[in-house]
Amino acid sequence: MMHLLFYGLTLSLHLLPLFLCVKFDNPNQMHIHAITILIGDMTPFSYYAVGPTLDVAFKRLQHDYPTTFANMSRTIIHEPGALSCADGAALVPALSDKIYEAVQRYPNSFTVMFSPGCSLEIVALGDFAREWDIPLFASSSSDGALSDKQRYPTVMSFTSSDEVATFVSFQLFLGRYRWRTITLLCDAPSQFQALSTFYMVACRNIKRFLDGSTTTKFLTNKLEFDSVKTLDYATLLSRVQDQSRVQVICAHPRIVRDIMVTAKRLNMTNGDYIFFTFQTTRVPGMTEILWQFLDDNDEAAFDGFQSLISFQNPNPKWELISDILEEAKNNSLDRYNRSVSRNEQLNDLAISGYESVLAFAQVFLELRADINTLTGTSFARRFYNRSFNPCFRNFFINENGMRMNDAVYQRLNVDSGVLEDTWLYDFASSVLREVSPKLAHTWKSKDGPPPDVPQCGYRNDLCATSNTQTLIISGVLVAVAVIICIGLTTALYWKFSNKMSNKSPWWQLHYTDLQPLSNPGPAWIMVRQRLPEAELSVCTNRRLHHGQSVTIEPFYGKCLSVHQILEQATFRNVLYATRFLQHENVNRFVGIATSSSPAYSYMVFDYGARDTLRLLIQNEPIHMDHTLKSSMIWEIVHVLP
């Protein structure tokens, strides 16, 4: 197979560009050679699906411009058998001889190639077109690789499923709602044949486009699955629940419905998640996005579709091309011996082929006077950066030869039960605008569109952590506040109590409560002071106060009344300080007692086993040497604060 490819390429180098640079005396009579290449039997790219519509396009071209296109020949190369895009691409090298023979058939003609092949086929055919310098009009391929004009200088993409402008609009849409974290659910639906390539390529290009964004940083996750083998989508959706709130489904409409039914059962359609699906325009084998299948899942599907946004490029205005569709249908029956259903008639890839022929005719008519000076590459460049305006749909070819289209976003109208246009991206102005403000502002959640990242995290674990931390901090603050309040209250109470105690006669004792000991024993000592003899009989040192042994000491020469003590603040403070003085060498102060006859005041202390310091000093048998005095001084100092 490969030796045929190199053989064709080798021969082509000798014929560059003989068939494009020949002088013609009459440009109106120039011979045009249109080669149409149809590979495989894949609906909707097949010979039978697109061929009849291309026939109608060339027939009308010659009818509308009889002078310019009267001398035009067509060569149709059909290679049957391939049922997938990959199989069709594998057949391209084997067709190199046939294609090269067709090119040689009219060496002095202006030769162009048309092909409705899928992306993989056009990528291979584009290399031949470059080597032979022949314009190639691809009506079904939108692969971004074709925008590489170093490798594909003569290739122009006319497919109505434009991924470039559509993905630009998708980025604008995500930016409008500040969505940055995206999960792509990519199906490889082998049961849908040619459509499987569309979804795989679209999913790959969406990720590449978002990852390559220079204006916004997106985090994209990609999960691939095969709907042929996947019977339950719960496992798939359970994985994405912890990844993102925005899910993009690249799958057949039937699979999209199954996924949305499962999402409803997993409670993912309550407004916390938003689902997108990117779809191609209308082609055979592709149904509309429908929730109603008249089965047991209709109710769940209806609820799930309220969280779904479908986006795609606009279909042509079918009502304006009904005559083209009918003529192609009749041509299919007459020439191809094949009847066409209504669903097969609505093939936008066939209409894209029709549009590519119209665009070729428009540019050729503009350049026909100078066509003999143009190469295939320079002719292709005349399509760049210009608009084409058929009555049924406008489109634009950008600076890389890629078709650019508007994009429409649809949502379910719960009243009508159908998906309706809600937002429209206008490529010419690069503006995404609301078509239906009511639907655009209708969200399942009362809080509006879901946030990019949930406030509590995808697993609701961030709020738990935050609440715990908040509770701990709050608890600590409350505890500290309570402790401070208790401390302040205690301090204020203590201060107030002290103040009140200091001013109250807490120290007042009744002299009658001081009972003399019945058997004082050796501790009974008379106070030898200069007191009246009558007083000496009562001024014994030791007493009982409420059953407790106490010691009394007289105020020398004074009998103090309660009023006199309360008026002396300094003395009162000394008494209060003495009240709380606690030490083993200091007898605790109990209070002051006043006798009426004779009138005398006494200070009352707890009785100490070692008696008092004064009595110790006055005890004459004890010798007060230097060591004893020093020890007594240190003990006194130790008591002081």
What this model shows, in words?
The chain is an alpha/beta fold and 641 residues long. It has four domains: 2-162 and 318-397, Rossmann fold (3-Layer(aba) Sandwich), CATH 3.40.50.2300; 164-312 and 407-440, Rossmann fold, CATH 3.40.50; 464-498; 508-639, Phosphorylase Kinase, domain 1. It is built from 22 helices and 22 strands. The strands form four sheets. Strands 7-6-8-9-10-14-15-16 form an eight-stranded mixed beta sheet. Strands 17-21-22-20-19-18 form a six-stranded mixed beta sheet, covered by helices on one side. β9 (274-278), α11 (298-305) and β10 (308-312) form a beta-alpha-beta unit. α2 crosses α12. The radius of gyration is 53 Å and the shape is rod-shaped. The termini are far apart. The relative contact order is 0.09. The model is unreliable at 1-27 and 521-539 (pLDDT under 50).
